[in-house]
Amino acid sequence: MKARKLFALVLAGALMVSSFAACGNSNSSSTASKTESKTESSKAESSSAESTPASTGGEKEKSDAKLNIWVYGWEKASADKIKEDTAAYKEETGVEVTVTPIASDSYSTKIQATIAGGNNPDLAFVDAGVQSTQLAAKGKLLGLNQFGVEEYKDKFYDSVWDTMVYKDDVYGLRITSNNLALFYNKELFEKAGLEEPKDWTWDDLREAAKKLTDPDNGIFGLDLPVYDKKGGYTWNWLPFLWQNGGELLNEDRTEAVFNSPEGVEALKFWKTMVQEDKSVPLQAAPTGVNRFTSGITAMVIDGPWNLNPFLSDPNFKDKFGVAPLPKQKTQATVVGGEGVVAFSNTKYPQEAYDYLVHLTCSDFVHTFWENWITIPPQPAEKDFYADDETYGKYLQVFSDQMEYSRTRPFTPSWPQIEDTLGIDLQGYMFNKTDDAQASLDKAVEDVNKILAEEDK
Amino acid sequence: MEQAKTSSRLQRRWNFWGYLFILPNFLGFLLFMLVPIIMALVFSFTNYDVISQMDFVGINNYVGLFTDDQFITSLLNTLWFAVLTVPTGVILALLLAVLFNRQIRGISIFRTFVFIPVITSMVAVSLVWSMLYEDNAGLLNTLLGYVGLGPVHWLTDTNIAMISIAIMSVWKGLGYNMTIFLAGLQGVPGELYEAATIDGATARQKFMKITVPMIAPTTYFVTLMALIGSLQVFDQVWIMTQGGPVDATKTVAMYLYQYGFQFYKMGYACAAAYVLFILVFIVSLIQNISSKKWGDLA
């Protein structure tokens, strides 16, 4: 009897412990950064303690600030580099930086959750513009004008700088950038007797797509994200709007203005290629990238993040080239990428700013370009990849495009605008009635509704 | 007297152990279900955005929902999905269960085949079906092509996309429902069928007059679970169409996920969640009341 009781008690206890352990886990992964970062910091301390025991004693003038930064943990190399660098940084400045790499699709949700809990890091990498604008509008980010951040303005492309600006302040600096260019399949171009794309206009693009399309063999000239709805439609369509001289929002970003004649033309251009020429595949799956590598499509508009997948495919790596996007009235492409922000509740604003500048404006930033295969956001580094045997010839095209790249007109509710606009544009694409003006008027109305709510 | 006292003390002691055993589960339920459910109700009357101070906005969120075309669309889509999947899913599962409810060699192999989709991850299943449904080179259209039909725009036609997802969902859930039905069928006493056979009943009569009424409680359970599941549909839609084309497959669960975790309008999303909750509650209630009638059949 006793033994049975004891067993029951132990079992119940074990159940309790395991269920608590489970909640502990889910807590730390979803909300509390503290526990994670502490383990990280203890690791960092133990490793740096051995190498620099003397330096801490001798230099008392230095700051004793402690900063915590969240970085993307997509790949180990750059996260390790940052950690390495923090030791040197501490020696130099006394500021102890704890690095927490987060490898997760829900990175931005995690940031949001830690802010809600008040235990957010001092600094964080973010999707530039998308999340930074939202957080800046809520007063969660440290405005950088007070530290004289303007001195670095000339270092960056205007489009890149603008992504981190909200109202009259700057809320971060950029580590990387990227944009959209035209990938094309050399083999299919050769078969269709086409020259490789150079100084193309919309008409050139359209004609080439028609020529490349071969229904008997299931080959399409061009891929457009007609089914993409996670904002992808908007992201890819914007360059076309801009190329045609159109604008999405007015200067103050308070009103949508894309139902202009330029917008109508840009909208029709896609539909003509899809529905009339049938040179764009109407397929939801596989993804556009897979269609391109398997030779179903001859051209796709996409970013430098695809280079690694393309180049790692032994059957495909020599078959493709990259060209600038076509132009119409003007040249344009859309810029994306990552930035670093500091949070307004940091205990050490000055130190946070200094470290932010160190990460983004010193040579250390090269680490990210080397490891992430993205485009330098700084004009002075335009030819950073020029001598790179593997990536050079491709990345240079993207890099050259930076000078006429543009930022999406970020507002605090940008994700919602992007999504709603995408649905409306897609609606026109699949609508039997062909009234582009009416479709854009409705889209403008929808976007204006979202913008109006921002001010409330 | 003495006897009764001891037994009640014993009872109490046993109760203590019982409570202790359910404590872990109950604590989990309290912390991760009940408290969030109540908090969500409170949030649904606020402009909670996860990071800043929230204000009460009365029923604004609910008014906003029902004046939003997108929400109405997603509500109708969700109901349409339920209409497509629940009756077919339940009836097919019942027929399969009857078919497989016999002792022949290798029957468990067939049952296993039907059950395999249930234990496969929804993500994997959705990805595979996306490929089957692919417009030009997908297996289904290729097969249709051989017999001179198609191509059907499975996931890219606004009228067909939801039906395609429903077909896949029925297939995925079939094994689970069938297993429950099998359990129900095996609980029907064999004597009833024997007696009916002696009385000269046909197979059809036996099915309608014995099987269907006898397993009514099982049918009730299966239907209810299928209904609740279908009203909450999310994974397959998210993976296969992301709600597209043009919102044709956007469901309420997807709508509230977007608002809660992508646009960070958590208060609004909570209101959407409560509309969904009320919807599920109402259909469960209707089911519950009508089930009493079903019970009379037995």
Automatic annotation (TrEMBL), chain A:
Signal among keywords: yes
Biased composition (Low complexity): 44-56
Record region (Disordered): 23-61
Entry-linked Gene3D superfamilies: Periplasmic binding protein-like II
Superkingdom of the source species: Bacteria
Pfam families: SBP_bac_1
Species of the source: Neglectibacter timonensis
Protein name: Sugar ABC transporter substrate-binding protein
InterPro entries named in the record: Bact_solute-bd_prot1, SBP
TrEMBL record, chain B:
Domain (ABC transmembrane type-1): residue spans on this chain: 75-287
A Pfam family of this chain: BPD_transp_1
Bilayer topology term: Multi-pass membrane protein
Record carries keyword DNA repair: no
Chief location: membrane
Keyword terms of this UniProt record: Cell membrane, Membrane, Transmembrane, Transmembrane helix, Transport
Membrane found in the keyword field: yes
Regions that span the bilayer: 20-45, 79-100, 112-132, 152-171, 214-234, 266-286
InterPro entries: ABC_transporter_permease (IPR051393), MetI-like (IPR000515), MetI-like_sf (IPR035906)
Superkingdom of origin: Bacteria
Subcellular location: Cell membrane
PANTHER family (UniProt xref): ABC TRANSPORTER PERMEASE PROTEIN (PTHR30193), INNER MEMBRANE ABC TRANSPORTER PERMEASE PROTEIN YCJO (PTHR30193:SF37)
Family: Belongs to the binding-protein-dependent transport system permease family.
Official protein name in the record: Sugar ABC transporter permease
